[in-house]
Write a structure and sequence with these properties.
Blueprint: E1 4-5, E2 15-18, E3 20-22, E4 25-27, E5 34-39, E6 44-50, H1 54-72, H2 76-92, H3 94-104, H4 109-126, H5 129-132, E7 137-142, E8 145-153, E9 156-160, H6 168-179, E10 183-187, H7 194-206, E11 213-215, H8 220-228, E12 232-238, H9 241-253, E13 257-261, E14 266-270, H10 276-288, E15 298-304, H11 308-318, H12 340-355, E16 359-362, E17 379-382, H13 389-392, E18 399-405, H14 408-417, E19 420-421, E20 423-427, H15 431-440, E21 445-448, E22 464-465, E23 468-469, H16 476-482, E24 484-492
Parallel strand pairs: 2-6, 9-10, 9-12, 10-11, 12-13, 14-15, 14-20, 15-18, 17-18, 20-21
Antiparallel strand pairs: 1-2, 3-4, 5-6, 7-8, 8-24, 13-23, 16-17, 19-22
Helix pairs in contact: 1-8, 2-4, 2-7, 3-4, 3-7, 4-6, 10-11
The structure holds nicotinamide-adenine-dinucleotide.
Nicotinamide-adenine-dinucleotide (NAD) is lined by residues 160-165, 169, 187, 189-190, 219-220, 223, 238-240, 243, 261-264, 295, 394, 396, 422, 463, 467.
């Protein structure tokens, strides 16, 4: 279990110490390095997380490597049975996991529960592993010869995850990876690490053999040790674009299969024929949910033609009603940001926006709760243009920018010229316009009157351009492919009557 210890430098508060997980047990870090974990709603440190050294990462990888031969030999039926148990346990403890997320990330409890629920859908998908790993079979491909394909696990695979979905994003990785027969090493975000350790305990309780799932906490030292480790076959990464690019380059240079999902700048286009109230509801929900710290959050609303003035008025009208406060308060709809530094950076876009010519319609600094937590209230910028910092940067906070476009073509050009391509939405009543949009927009996940089009678990999640490095989207069918490699068997059972020497190239006719 997660240890409760008095951390060095703390006098008056009980400080949780968050340790690694290897071989089915908690393993205290020995590197002498660690990092603080905060309760962002209070602005106080509540924990200290161990940072792994290279040697500790190696130990986790070796543990996973030793567990691999036995785990890959476990029958599909048993793996399926185990995944049903995991599903039930995660479902039963959804409230506990959500409480950990609210405590360390800050998102409101209802949103935290929603996160675990969406992650659970990927676990449910993994319950179908016998069907998902089915190969194909061609009888009599040539005389007396059958050909069939099988998919096999890679070995030890690793996941490196961001702070904003501390339970769901790891589930996107470990569920398919383990179901496919791999063993796993997770390096969660050091900002909110406890959910991963808790889930490790649940997996053990469900009956997952020791060593199949391991957690190393830490920073760049641990990440680099994973990327360079010769026994790690593949790396899944979700995080910011500069780090995703680094992970992809470094991991592939070390011969690994890598999928690295990066940052985003998600646009929501509102055409003049759209239902303005519905669009405003969607913009507020998708712009400020989870304090804008979602890779699929709407960051730029592109109001086309006459839609702009009524849309800005409708969004502005809704903002005073959004309840900002601690995630543990059932009344709160939006919690704090992850750190004070991030809150200040997000707020700086209100100043740079004003200085660069945007209109600050609502300044969230004026409405943020003043209790020492890392809060910023909902904020709205209008008349944002593509050269402004507020448009160019991801922001990743509760600052929504309205960009005004004259025509549909201008709006689509804006989206397609953006370096990111994670999510996008169009709001319209015109089916033809929506169809044309999905045809020509250069973005991986598209919503039609749906502001946060996160694919269901049986499709795959992933952006285009600077939002994804590598060939493979995450979870769903592409996740199963990513965590397996194909083998094709050409087989003939001996028939001595037809055996002969033939030095020609094998023919099928
Ligand atoms: P981050 O890139 O700072 O960190 C992600 C992971 O990389 C963490 O585990 C961290 O410890 C590690 N890391 C950080 N700096 C590193 C370095 N220099 N070298 C090696 N490893 C390093 O991202 P974050 O701030 O935790 O998460 C927010 C970002 O993640 C946003 O940009 C968001 O858009 C993105 N994100 C993307 C998706 C997606 O599906 N595309 C989903 C969630 C979050």
């Amino acid at each position: 279990m997660t240890e409760v210890v008095e951390a060095p430098g703390t006098t008056d508060a009980k400080m949780r110490r968050i340790s690694h997980w290897m071989g089915g047990q908690s393993v205290a870090g020995e590197s002498g390095r660690s990092g603080p974990v905060y309760n962002p709603a209070l602005g106080v440190q509540t924990g200290e997380v161990d940072f792994a050294s290279r040697e500790e990462v190696d130990r986790a990888v070796q543990t996973a490597k030793e567990a691999f031969p036995a785990w890959r030999a476990v029958s599909l039926s048993r793996r399926q049975e185990l995944f049903f148990r995991i599903r039930e346990l995660v479902h039963d403890r959804l409230g506990e996991i959500a409480a950990i997320l609210t405590d360390e990330h800050g998102k409101v409890l209802s949103d935290a529960k929603g996160e675990v629920q969406r992650g659970l859908e990927v676990v449910e998908y993994a319950c179908g592993i016998p069907t998902l790993l089915r190969g194909s079979f061609s009888e009599q491909a040539s005389g007396g010869i059958d050909v069939y394909s099988i998919r096999q696990p890679l070995g030890v695979v690793a996941g490196i995850t961001p702070f904003n979905f501390p339970a769901m994003v790891p589930m996107w990785m470990w569920a398919p990876a383990i179901a496919c027969g791999n063993t796993f090493v997770l390096k969660p975000s050091e900002k909110d690490p406890s959910a991963s350790t808790y889930v490790a305990e649940l997996l053990k309780e469900a009956g997952l053999p020791d060593g199949v799932f391991n957690v190393v906490h830490g920073d760049k030292v641990a990440v680099d040790a994973i990327l360079e480790h010769p026994d790690v076959a593949a790396v899944s990464f979700v995080g910011s674009t500069p780090i995703a690019s680094y992970i992809y380059k470094t991991g592939t240079a070390h011969g690994k299969r890598v999928q690295a999902l990066g940052g985003a700048k998600n646009h929501m286009i509102v055409l003049p024929d759209a239902d303005i109230d519905m669009a405003a509801d969607a913009a507020v929900s998708a712009g400020y949910g989870s304090a804008g710290e979602r890779c699929m959050a709407v960051s730029a609303v592109v109001a086309v033609g006459d839609a702009a003035d009524p849309l800005v008025a409708a969004i502005e009208d809704r903002l005073p009603k959004v309840k900002v406060g601690p995630g543990t308060d059932p009344e709160s709809e939006m919690g704090p940001l992850i750190t004070a530094a991030h809150r200040d950076k997000v707020a700086s876009y209100l100043d740079s926006g004003r200085d660069q010519g945007a209109t600050v319609v609502t300044d969230g600094r004026e409405t943020a709760p003043d209790n020492g937590g890392f809060f910023l209230g909902v904020s709205l910028l209008d008349h944002v243009t593509p050269e402004m910092d507020a448009y160019r940067d991801e922001i990743f906070g509760p600052v929504l920018s309205v960009v005004r476009a004259e025509t549909y073509d201008d709006a689509v050009r804006l989206v397609n010229e953006n370096p990111y391509g994670n999510g996008v939405a169009i709001f319209t009543r015109d089916g033809g316009a929506a169809r044309q949009f999905q045809f020509e927009v250069e973005v991986g996940m598209v919503g039609v009157n749906v502001p946060i089009p996160v694919p269901v678990a049986y499709y795959s999640f992933g952006g285009w351009k600077a939002s994804l490095f590598g060939d493979s989207h995450i979870y769903g069918p592409e996740g199963i492919n990513f965590y397996t490699r194909g083998k094709v068997v050409t087989s003939r059972w001996p028939d001595p009557a037809t055996s002969q020497v033939d030095l020609g190239f094998p023919q099928t006719r």
